[in-house]
Amino acid sequence: MSKAKPKFYVVWKGVNPGIYTSWTECKQQVHGYDSALYKSFSTKEEAEEAYNSPAYSYFSPKKKSNRNEMVQPSNPPAYRTDTVLPLPSEVLSDALAVDAACSGNPGPMEYRGVYLRTGQEIFHLGPLYGTNNIGEFLAIVHALALLKQRGLKMTIYSDSRNAIGWVQKKKCKTKLEHTSRTEELHQLIARAEKWLAENEYDTPIVKWETSRWGEVPADFGRK
């Protein structure tokens, strides 16, 4: 009788996220955990690559979930705590929402992207000395580049009309002075502008309508 092939279980969200070598160990991390995100892989290398990647890139909406498949949360999942939930009917859950926050203008700035279907923070950068508009611009470009890199097609929501316009014109029209304090941020701006100039994309960038939908789910909650 041949031995069963070993499996490696990646737990992105659970009691203790990590890589496990048996379903028994994996189950201990995800059983009863409403926001559990996990999946099995055939090799250790695949599992390690998956664990170091955003969980959303392994979602497979067409597949039926079972105990060894990625849990497919509903829209919205019961464990989500965003102030804007439930998501408005016209908002796609298979989408990224981006936002920035800045203490002062300029001041310490950070931005992030959140996957709406799960509430998972996909990327985060900062704080860096800058402005909110710059952060909003960089967040959109970061999302565009990430989606293109992973071959994913989904909508990006941003509540910044200025940043959306800057991205469309492929230019960050900031007046932030270029100093030693802002050097790192200006390097990021230059890299973002270069990416926009060299890459084509068909990703929809949609204005998040705060007045109708509430705060964008990537909001830092500092208002």
Could you explain how this protein is built, in words?
α3 crosses α4 and α3 packs across α5. The chain is an alpha/beta fold. A five-stranded mixed beta sheet has the order 6-5-4-7-8, with helices on one face.
SSE layout and pairing:
Blueprint: E1 8-13, E2 18-20, H1 23-30, E3 37-41, H2 44-51, E4 95-102, E5 107-115, E6 120-130, H3 132-150, E7 155-158, H4 161-169, H5 183-198, E8 205-207, H6 210-213
Parallel strand pairs: 4-7, 7-8
Antiparallel strand pairs: 1-2, 1-3, 4-5, 5-6
The main pleated sheet reads as:
5 strands, mixed
Give the strand order of the largest sheet, numbering strands 1, 2, ... along the chain.
6-5-4-7-8
List the secondary-structure elements in sequence, H or E.
Answer: EEHEHEEEHEHHEH
Shape by Cα distribution: globular
Q: How many alpha or pi helices?
A: 6
Would you report the number of β strands? 8
Distance between the termini: 64 Å
Work out the radius of gyration.
19 Å
Low-confidence stretches: 60-83
Residues in β-strands, percent: 15-25%
> Helix fraction?
25-40%
Mean pLDDT: 83
The chain-level structural class is alpha/beta
Give the key terms.
223 residues, 3-stranded antiparallel sheet
Summarize the structure.
With 223 residues, this protein is an alpha/beta fold. The protein contains six helices and eight strands.
